[in-house]
Design brief:
- This protein has 40 helices and 28 strands.
- By secondary structure, it is an alpha/beta fold.
- Helix 39 links the parallel strand 27 and strand 28.
């Protein structure tokens, strides 16, 4: 039946249906410890396609699982049938001061960004908010550090848009939709109301439900929705919360906008032991009107994160810490609250005087410790082990007994775990890293889980607080709730999904061993990648995320190839899988990796997956000969590039820009030749001669790219970049010095795909002596005119010489000497990835704001343009995919001026927006007369 299902899906999904093993394997990952490889992966682009998929699922009895960002930790976003990915095409947002409507693919932090102008935010604030999608946050009833149970999805939901198991789209924000549902789905509607009536007859069970949901609880379905509401619309709004996509597809959610207080204070308090810290938690919990968060970290956590924070040197085992946050709309009230909390905490004295900071950078540093605990602890795990992270919740009066009990279970079952969590809510997280290939440790894990559930149930807590039930706790839902309440869970599932086709095996699962099956197999890989636990923090930043694979997927594929290769005996299926993975590796893992290393910026462990491509290129270096030739003959290389540019211009003049681009794209597809973009640069013929303008001097290291490139014919200002910079320096009375060997200068970025081991082949090494002499041993600064090259220079010579990116130099050394008349119009700005990584970004923004009285538009969610030097010419799909959202962002703004700081990136930006982008200094020179 799967083949018939696939054929009908293919008719409307076309290339958005994936059946190759490399895609099924890579797209099937999530952040949990489990592995399920789907048989098909689908990427619908709208609700209509999702509805078609659901109808076909019912027709052919094919189970479906809907997945967002895959940050789930309990295995609820996995499938061994058909996986439906719904992130990149589901990102619409409508925000107001009262509420925010988000499609399921909207990232949580982007929702907050949309609410920021109103001084508001969404209620849920999970540690993964920078990566998790709204669909997942809602479906797992994720809460987080500050929201507790007061501002979670259940408390702040306004309306939902759901596609049911027959393709019907239910929108609870529209009365007519609810009325239609009541009419066309009378049995389901009446079934829900009947369940409510049946439940309300059991006063004891109703009391238990209310007690259990007074604390964090995501075990099973939201039975509280049947107790708390009598209107069908309200029940429908709430019953899908925490249902983990097992009752229908959550297309969109409308949240109440919550206050984002202007003034915040964060305190880091150290305690002698967990008991004293727990006592402090109880005190803080009684003052929830003043305290918004209290995060507990045990000694094992502190040992892992010492390098991230200036901890007191006298801190020794067995110490622990509380990270406390206070918020207010008035600074004076916040200061009073700090004083009050310090006073009441004297009953539970800390090791040191409690320290509270109002500084945003300090706060961010402290919260970085807490938010990075999962990946950081994963990085320290024994090789070959898996990461098991769980979260339970206790009533505050049982909080101390609960965490002490978990600590004892660590000892009993021989695990070195860490304990942390949202203590103010009684919510305890812990991490253990068992070697599940070891029979003894696997048995220890199974026994640990049994004992853990027994402990939590005995203390009347929740075995799942906020990560969702998933497969990790599905086997224990009945044990927590009891037979009668579990019966209600099964009836809810049967009402919405009678054929058990929507995310089966999650929440309701009769296999009592499901939590200890299908773990990710382990295999050691290179040290610079080994720490990756596939959390997905990197994915939002990756330019290839919508085209091929993301950093965590590349690492997972790389690990799986190494594992399969290491097997002494491979089955026929494993042999086939290995061949398929290797077949797709060159394109999916290597060729479409931009090499921007933005993944390392997003990763708490700074794992750089771009090194995979670099290693591959060195091992399979068909281009190594060319790289060596260029390193030795850079001046000839620039001349060849200029010849190519002239040839491209001739083609554009003869055939027209559009036809030339179309022809080059066809040739690129067939023969992998370079493309000719519409905004192709012209050959640069400007002569580089030093200019004496005043006593101050700067050494101008014009990159090999900009020595070859002049602005395209469609650019507003067709002067070379060198001429413009010289003009600014003349106005600021700064002399410009070019090295005598400038025609041979290259930072080495152009050869980044290859490791040239001979020092004489390193272009920087060849010029280093001349630069020291010319700069008078570092006294005279150097400036580079391409941000990616500036970053490369800084990484190589930054400790020896004073190096500026051109944007930095203009902002810090030139701008104050110019008489600028700002524009009265909006402008567009793109800050390239290297500028963000090396701190040039603020200089660009300051210059842009200095040059206009109107607004500077920047699409901050495009973290890298994907042009990546030569890859923009050789793999244009990467650039096109990376700029898809940026193109839509600028489409309706009707701007006429667009600026950046890297000529190669500007080519791709121009082609994407059909507008000429140029270096920001063109605007500075224009406005300074």
């Amino acid at each position: 039946m799967l083949e018939f299902f696939k054929k009908e899906c293919e008719a409307f999904l076309k290339e958005r249906l994936y059946d190759s093993y490399i895609h099924r394997f890579a797209y099937g990952l999530d952040a949990s410890c489990y592995r399920y490889v789907p048989k098909l992966v689908l990427k619908p682009k709208n609700e209509e396609e999702v509805a078609k998929i659901i109808i076909l699922s019912d027709k052919f009895n094919i189970p479906l699982t809907f997945k967002g960002s895959g940050t789930s930790l309990c295995g609820q976003a996995l499938s061994d049938s058909v996986l439906v990915l719904c992130v990149e095409n589901f990102k619409k947002i409508k925000a107001s001061a009262q509420s925010i409507w988000c499609e399921c693919g909207v990232i949580g932090s982007d929702a907050n960004e949309a609410l920021k102008p109103f001084g508001k935010k969404i209620g849920p604030d999970p540690a993964t908010i920078n990566n998790a999608s709204i669909g997942g946050i809602f479906s797992n009833n994720s809460s987080g550090m500050c929201c507790g149970v007061k501002q979670n999805s259940y408390q702040t939901i306004r309306s939902v848009r759901i596609i049911l198991n027959d393709g019907f789209i239910l929108d609870t924000s529209k009365e007519e939709s609810v009325r239609e549902f009541t009419s066309t789905h009378a049995a389901l509607a009446q079934g829900l109301l009947s369940l409510r009536e049946e439940l309300l007859k059991d006063a004891f069970l109703v009391g238990e439900i209310k007690r259990k949901f007074a604390i964090k609880n995501t075990t099973g379905y939201g039975l509280n929705s049947l107790c708390d509401f009598s209107e069908l619309k309200d029940i429908l709004n709430h019953i899908f919360i925490g249902a983990e996509g097992t009752l229908g597809f959550v297309s969109g959610v409308e949240y109440e906008a919550c206050e984002d207080y202007a003034y915040k204070a964060t305190g880091l308090l150290f305690y002698e032991n967990l008991s004293l810290a727990s006592k402090a938690v109880k005190i803080l919990a009684s003052h929830e009107d003043k305290v918004f968060a209290a995060e507990l970290m045990d000694w094992a956590c502190l040992k892992l994160t010492r390098e991230l924070c200036d901890m007191p040197p006298s801190l020794k085992n067995p110490n622990c810490a509380l990270l406390i946050e206070l918020q207010s709309d008035e600074e004076e009230r916040l200061l009073k609250n700090i004083a009050f909390i310090k006073e009441v905490l004297e009953e539970a004295p800390a090791l040191f005087e409690p320290e509270f900071s109002l500084d945003a950078n300090t706060q961010a540093n402290w919260w970085k410790i807490r938010k990075g605990l999962l990946p950081i602890s994963a990085s320290k795990r024994p090789k070959g082990s898996v990461v098991i992270t769980e979260d339970v919740c206790f009533e505050i009066e049982n909080f101390t007994r609960g965490i002490e009990g978990i600590a004892k279970l660590f000892t009993k079952h021989d695990f070195e775990g860490i304990i942390f969590g949202h203590a103010l809510s009684g919510n305890v997280h812990f991490i253990i890293t068992p070697l599940l290939d070891d029979a003894r440790q696997r048995l220890n894990f199974e026994n640990f889980m049994q004992d853990l559930v027994a402990l939590v149930v005995s203390l009347k807590g929740s075995i799942k607080a906020e990560h969702g039930t998933g497969r990790m706790m599905a086997a224990f839902v009945e044990q927590e709730w009891g037979e009668k309440a579990y019966g209600f869970h099964k009836k809810i599932k049967a009402l919405f999904d009678p054929k058990n086709l929507i995310n089966p095996g999650v929440i309701i699962n009769e296999d009592k061993k499901i939590h200890s099956k299908n773990f990710k197999p382990s295999h050691e890989i290179e040290d610079f990648l080994e720490a990756c636990m596939e959390c997905g923090f990197c994915e939002k930043y990756c330019p290839s995320k919508s085209l091929t694979l993301t950093p965590r997927q590349r690492i997972a594929v790389h690990r799986e190839i190494k594992r399969l290769q290491a097997l002494a005996h491979r089955s026929q299926e494993e042999e086939s899988e290995l061949l398929e993975l290797k077949k797709g590796y060159a394109y999916e893992v290597v060729a479409t990796c931009a090499g921007c290393s933005m993944c390392a910026v997003a990763c708490p462990l700074e794992i750089d997956s771009a090194k995979i491509a670099n290693a591959y290129n060195n091992e399979n270096a068909r281009g190594i000969f060319l790289a060596k030739f260029l390193a030795k003959n850079l001046n000839k290389g620039v001349k060849v590039a200029k010849f190519g540019l002239n040839l491209a211009r001739f083609g554009q003049n003869t055939l027209g820009r559009e036809r030339m681009k179309s022809l080059s794209l066809s040739l690129n597809e067939k023969f992998h030749t370079p493309i000719v973009p519409i905004f192709m640069p012209r050959a640069n013929g400007y002569a580089l001669n030093s200019r004496t303008n005043g006593e101050k001097s700067v050494i101008y290291l014009s990159s090999c790219l900009n020595r070859a490139f002049a602005p395209p014919a469609l650019a507003k200002d067709k002067r070379s970049l060198q001429e413009v910079f010289e003009s600014l320096c003349k106005k600021a009375k700064i002399s410009v010095l070019y090295p005598k060997s400038i025609d041979k200068f290259c930072c080495g970025k152009a050869l980044k795909n290859y490791t040239l081991k001979e020092p004489k082949l390193n272009p920087i090494t060849a010029l280093e002596g001349e630069l020291f002499t010319l700069s008078e041993n570092g006294r005279i600064p150097l400036v580079c005119d391409h941000s990616a090259c500036s970053a490369q220079l800084l990484s190589k010579l930054g400790e020896k010489l004073k190096i500026y990116d051109m944007s930095e130099f203009v902002e810090k050394e030139i701008l104050a000497h110019l008489n600028i008349e700002p524009l009265e119009e909006d402008i567009g700005l793109f800050v390239v990835c290297s500028s963000k990584k090396y701190g040039f970004d603020e200089s660009l923004r300051k210059i842009a704001k200095f040059c206009t009285k109107a607004r500077v538009y920047e699409h901050k969610n495009t973290h890298c343009c994907g042009f990546a030097g030569d890859k923009g010419f050789m793999n244009p799909k990467l650039n096109q995919s990376a700029l898809k959202d940026l193109r839509e962002f600028f489409k309706g703004l009707k701007l006429e001026r667009f600026y950046s700081s890297s000529s190669t990136c500007e080519i791709g930006l121009s082609d994407a927006t059909k507008e000429a982008w140029q270096h920001l200094i063109y605007l500075v020179d224009e406005l300074s007369g």
